[in-house]
Design brief:
The chain has 2 domains: about 5-135, Phosphorylase Kinase, domain 1 (2-Layer Sandwich), CATH 3.30.200.20; about 150-370, Alpha-Beta Complex (Aminoglycoside 3'-phosphotransferase, Chain: A, domain 2), CATH 3.90.1200. Mean pLDDT is about 90; it is low at about 1-15. The protein contains 12 helices and 9 strands. Helix 7 (about 195-210) runs parallel beside helix 11 (about 320-345), helix 8 runs antiparallel to helix 11 and helix 9 packs across helix 11. A 5-stranded antiparallel β-sheet has the order 1-2-3-5-4, with helices on both faces. The chain has a two-stranded antiparallel ribbon with strand order 6-9. The protein has a two-stranded antiparallel ribbon with strand order 7-8. The protein is an alpha+beta fold.
Amino acid sequence: MSADDLNEKWELTVSDRDDDELATRLTQWLAGKVESDTPPRVTSLTHPQAGGMSSATLLFDAEWTENGQPAGGSFVARLAPEADSFPVFEKYDLGGQFAIMAAVTEATDLPIPPLCWFEADDSVLGSPFLVMRRVGGQAPSDNPPYVFTGWLYDATPEQRLEITRNTVDVIARIHAIENPAERLPHLDGEGPALRRHLDAQKRWYAWALTDDGYNIPILDRAFQWLEDNFPEHPTADVLSWGDARPGNIMFEGLTPNAVLDWEMAAIGPRELDVAWTLLIHRFFQDMATKYGQPGVPDYMRRSDVEKLYTEATGHTLQDLDWYLTYAALRHGVVMARIWRRMIHFGETTEPENRDEFVMHADLIEALLDGTYDWD
């Protein structure tokens, strides 16, 4: 794979749902959801191509009239993947995601897209889905990665520092929500939250890979290292956004305009989110460096993020090297599962070395050896 390949959008198989049929079913479903003078119409339906590797996303416009006045607007529907789509995650609790977004909306003034409906009946579109209003703005692109092209790549160092600051502020405000386990009991459970979190990752790794004989040596080593170095005294639990990464905030200018994607939300130490944000950026930045490109090395620097987070919250992050290694492992399972899915759909072939299922195996290796250079 070359740098030019990475600068192009990857076309990955997510679903084979027929758009015309989806539009017809959405129209029929909307008729039972809105109080309208005339039957609603879905006037457009598209699939965004910048991301969506874990679940299907539909963008659609709909219109109807209420009391003689035009109504409707632009909407986003997120659908749980179909069973035959070789999903990344074993479970997709869209009802839980809807509840999390509602709770964050109630507890903060963060820009959560306005929620409309959750539909649990999979007979409507083939799987459960939620609908929210579409919000304007732009996010740093995962596909193609923002370290190669796009508005963040073209920004000044000062602007990228402001984007970093605003991203950290979003995370800090999520972590400030009081009593998250009481607000969202479906995220709670027995025993220490970090222990539950790591055990859940082990079960996911088994389901995604090892149950079918796909052991990945670098991931096996990372799991053992995490156990051998498990934090003795994790910090207090907060609501963890889960997928706290550059591509999940929509910006108007430099200001966050929408906080997206809550499918990985959990209860756990604040370091989970901070480490995930740092790791995902370094995954992309290392990709740029590998192919002789400058990337954006002044963006989302570890030293900046740690300082900004402490300023925003008053909390000093603990055991961050452990959480960064954990984030690298978790992302490694994601990448390995995606590679398996691409093999399943005939989009690539299996490599001779199983560690090649993980694009950032070198990064994990350096973290395990304590030789990774962050800044």
